Input
Amino acid sequence: MCGIVGVSNHRDAAKIIFLSLYALQHRGEEACGIVSYDGKKIYAEKTTGLVADSFDERSVAHLKGSFAVGHTRYSTTGSSSAKNIQPFLATHKGRPIAIAHNGNLTNTEFLSEQLEDGGSIFQTTMDSEMIVHLLAKTKNGDLKSWMTEALCQLKGSYSLVFLVGDVLIGARDPFGFRPLCLGMINDAYILASETCAFDLVGARFVREIEPGEIVFIKSGRIESSFLPLGNKKCKAQCVFENIYFARPDSHIFHDNVYSVRKRLGAQLAKEHPVKKADFVMAIPDSGSYAALGYAQASGLPLEIGMIRNHYIGRTFIQPAQFLRDFRVRVKLNPIRDILKGKKIVVVEDSIVRGTTSRSRVEELRKAGVKEIHFRVSCPPIRFPCFYGIDFPSKKELVASKKSIKETARFIQVDSLKYLSLSGMLSVMKNSQQFCHACFDGHYPEVVPQKAGKYLLEKGCK
Ligand code: 5GP
Ligand code: MG
Output
């Protein structure tokens, strides 16, 4: 996962990137960076940590020029070291290139072997660096054919924002796994992972970049071209963006994320009602929207049974398991007075490793809850994701090791029910255009055997 953004032709380009990264912070809390260009020189600021802690007025003022790209990092490939912070910078034939990547390439092993045999030396362990090497190796015709030829060699997921000199380029892989949106601030173009970035900087949402599309933005004009599709005729947008990852105030994949989550909750209530419960509550914050949908559809009242501490970040960000457990406990605290003696429906957006649910249920029991009926707004996650969501290995997924009954026992609930795959898809617009391989193992392309192993070796959890 990652958040990416690019701006062309705006005198406050770096400021806009900074604010946009603020809005995209949820897509990666590990590191962030901004690169700008003033027509002559490249300026870069990259550091580990949150956007708000990493930049101030002085560092943003240092980023001169009216072209800029930015990135917030959540590593799935490549280690967390400083050299892996994006945007990745290079110079090719006197032209500066800055690249920000969201997604995960699946043919990196093949590509790196090929590139290293051809003399490439890598500076980082990021799959994103390969894109720059491919560009360097590709015959340099006009910008369009140059980009097309290089991007055609990639497999897996990528939404990309590039600066090549004063040209801002946006690209989305032919399956369209990750989102990428186009907006305008007066007559300046902006590209960002999600539209919540546009709202913050006063940009007007124009449209989404299409799967397989490349846009070239120069001097206030935009040109679009498409990668040859080959056998990739279907779209495979990541359904998990809608379930968990994207911000609810964003509009991605032609829908509003908040509304999708509420519809998931309503569908869950239809499939798995609970008779005579006292109320519905969410595991906050991410479960809140599905819980609201569940409550409205079932007619049960909604209570906020747990308070989230807003001063800590997302629980997956910490790599060590013991820290993850600790952070879950700090993060959410139950309100004993409303919970004691009650029969409740608890709605969660997803169960991945089971850490959050198990520890929250334990707290709810301590608070005196009598019956817990746990409802999950997506099906059991049984298969790893090779396209950028942070569950690359099967052995971490509780649903791939345990049956639903065993999971219910593990998290200690009275009943556990998941939304069905067909129910989940029934509430999505253009449901045939989503990747749901993490639920059913049907990957949209043949994933190289070694992709999973490679991800793990590269320091991925
Ligand atoms: P678990 O505790 O079962 O491992 O994870 C489920 C919880 O983590 C849910 O509350 C869900 O909202 C959240 N979650 C699901 N997927 C991800 C992810 O990829 N990253 C982060 N940070 N949290 C996730
Ligand atoms: Mg959550």
In short: The longest strand covers residues 95-102. Residues 244, 283, 286, 314-316, 348-357, 389-390 surround guanosine-5'-monophosphate (ligand 1) (CB under 6 Å).
